[in-house]
Design a protein that fits this description.
Elements lengths: L21 H23 L5 H21 L1 E6 L3 E4 L2 E5 L7 H6 L5 E5 L4 H15 L8 H8 L4 E4 L4 H5 L25 H16 L5 H4 L15 H33 L6 H17 L3 H21 L1 H15 L5 H6 L8 H11 L4 H10 L3 H17 L1 H5 L7 H11 L7 H6 L7 H13 L5 H8 L5 H10 L6 H12 L8 H14 L2 H12 L7 H16 L3 H10 L5 H11 L7
Antiparallel strand pairs: 1-2, 1-4, 2-3, 4-5
């Protein structure tokens, strides 16, 4: 592997180096807060989700603006803070979620962004952070991941001797002192601490059934017998620890044994008996909430399946069937009933186990999302559900329920980033939901969908009881060649009752007509703008202003003519709006 890339680039001239101004520092703070929000969103939602896309675009815009003025952004990285020009501009002491610590722990000292930064590079940067954060701590290395990406305008400084400098940190030097004259005496004087250490070691060996070589060989009793424990309670505690260690070793040995048996067994008629042993071992682990042991078994079986898949397809199929039996939804029914917020002592082990189970764990994960109220735990659950949904959308669809609006919204958001053709019919099922927030999330997902049927479902939401829902549906409608949708909207806006709707809703539907760029829509918008009334109410003026905005969207020459006609109206607001639409850049002439 090549050495990690260091940043050696320098400004074009020394004149480019200026002391940081207060406004500059404030701008960097805003960029870092945006970066933290974008990283959090990238961990929670798929890259195509509207929240992620919006944050990436905003973050890139802020960075681009700063870099255009300053050539580069140079961030110092401390254990729990980012610095800029020697000032702390962002800090987070919570090590688990701290973004500075995420870079610092792998040895990164500086992070650089350069002029010319592309939005795709920002997206790749966030995706890399997300992927590394999902890896086990012992495998995660953001520096190696960024080195592989080799982003042209995002660089870092990480000295190669970082690991060497970490070795020995926090340890007290041995401080050994040797007097040459004492070496000739043939005697070693032990300190009280040395004696205590040796006694403790001998006591541990005696308790575990081991003896020193001197005792076995009948050597001289140079060291006095072990002292009796200070009290019985201490002795019982030591025995308990030893017994626990022996049990753990026995469980690991047992698992290794049955794994070895299934690996070497060549008689198909023996497989059912071996599979039953696995099932009993697995059920015992799950019933005792020993999720680490259950996950270890599933991991071992999948490794065997991978080996057999290359060597023996029949044995691979048998192991695959065993895994499916252990991880199917019905196998976890008992776990689903027994879990409660107080019974889970190790959330990490449980979530790791459920991730290995896969789609069969979806219902359990849904229950945990409802039970765990803290955002961090919920994000971890959603990450696993996202992983499941990439391979099995239906497992997520079954979790959406009217009585669980929060979970349902998250499921809709996760599925909105997939291309599964079943998603649009699934979203249509929320047309009659009692929760406006669920409808709005479904509309967002439909707006991002590339399925031609999505617009027809959106038009269904345009008839909802809630005005905000109807307006959102109109804004999400695409300017597609589907004339059926356009005809429906033209009939809707032509009704007298349409003018009684809220201005936000009216603006949304007129904006759709503008985006359609159709001759029929142009006629309606022109009539709305130029309709002559001697006295106009504030709402009528607002509707005409909406028509101006819609006409400004159109590319038809007749739209410009309508705006020129509007620029001569008596109403000052209408007149000025039309002029701005005709001359958006504010040019004279």
């Amino acid at each position: 592997m090549e050495p990690k890339k260091l940043d050696h680039r320098v400004p074009l001239s020394e004149k480019d180096i200026r002391p940081a101004e207060p406004a500059q520092v404030e701008e960097v703070k805003q960029i870092l807060h945006l970066l933290f929000s974008a990283v959090s969103a990238a961990k929670l939602f798929p890259p195509e989700h509207q929240t992620v896309v919006s944050l990436v675009s905003t973050l890139h815009g802020q960075l681009k603006s700063f870099l255009e003025a300053n050539w580069k952004l140079e961030l110092g990285i401390e254990e729990h803070a980012f610095t800029f020009e020697g000032q702390r501009v962002y800090s987070d002491p919570h090590q688990v979620k701290s973004l500075p610590f995420f870079f610092f722990k792998d040895g990164m000292q500086m992070l650089y962004f350069y002029r010319g930064l592309e939005q795709e590079e920002v997206k790749e940067f966030l995706t890399t952070i997300r992927l590394v954060s999902l890896q086990p701590p012992e495998e995660a290395d953001i520096i190696s991941a960024l080195w592989e990406k080799d982003l042209a305008n995002i660089r870092y400084l990480a000295p190669d001797d970082f690991l060497e400098t970490k070795i020995g940190v926090g340890r007290t030097p041995l401080g050994i002192q040797v007097n040459p004259e004492e070496l000739h005496r043939g005697r070693i004087d032990l300190t009280p601490e040395d004696l205590a250490s040796m006694r403790n070691k001998l006591f541990a060996e005696r308790a575990s059934g081991e003896t020193t070589s001197g005792a076995d060989e009948g050597g001289p009793p140079d060291i006095s017998p072990l002292p009796a424990p200070s009290d019985e309670e201490e002795m019982r505690e030591i025995e308990s620890l030893l017994l626990s260690n022996r049990r753990l070793s026995q469980q690991e040995e047992y698992l290794n044994l049955i794994v070895e048996i299934i690996y070497h067994e060549d008689r198909p008629d023996q497989f059912p008996a071996i599979a039953e042993v696995f099932k009993q071992y697995y059920q015992d682990a799950v019933e005792k909430l020993d999720f680490g042991r259950a996950a270890q078994l599933l991991k071992a079986l999948r490794e065997i399946e991978d080996v057999f898949d290359k060597q023996d397809k029949n044995k691979a199929a048998l192991v695959s069937g065993l895994i499916q039996g252990l991880t199917q939804e019905t196998a976890l029914a008992g776990l689903q009933q027994s879990l409660d917020p107080g019974s889970v002592k190790d959330k990490g082990a449980l979530l790791n186990y459920l991730k290995m189970v896969g789609p069969g764990a979806a219902r359990v994960l849904g229950d945990l999302f409802e039970q765990w109220r803290d955002p961090g735990s919920r994000r971890q659950v959603l990450d696993i559900l996202h992983h499941i949904g990439q391979n099995d959308s239906e497992a997520l669809m079954r979790l959406a329920q009217e009585i669980r609006p929060d979970l349902t919204k998250e499921i809709i958001a996760l599925l909105g980033g997939t291309r599964d053709k079943r998603v649009v019919p699934f979203l249509a099922g929320f047309l009659n939901s009692r929760h406006a927030s669920v409808k709005l999330e479904a509309i967002r997902a439909l707006g991002n969908s590339q399925d031609p049927a999505a617009d027809r479902v959106l038009f269904g939401f345009a008839s909802a009881d809630e005005q905000a829902v109807r307006a959102a549906a109109a804004r999400a409608l695409k300017a597609s060649p589907d004339t059926l949708i356009l005809d429906h909207v033209l009939r809707l806006v032509a009704e007298k009752s349409f003018l009684k709707k809220g201005l936000e809703e009216i603006a949304a539907f007129l904006d759709f007509l503008g985006r359609s760029n159709s001759a029929e829509a142009l006629l309606f918008l022109r009539r709305t703008l130029l309709e002559s009334r001697f006295f106009s109410s504030p709402k009528q003026t607002g509707i005409r202003l909406c028509a101006v905005s819609a006409l400004a969207r159109m590319e038809l020459p007749e739209a410009k003519e309508a705006l020129r006609a509007g620029a001569g109206r008596r109403n000052r607001k209408i007149r000025e709006a039309c002029r701005r639409a005709l001359n958006p850049d504010g040019e004279k002439g």
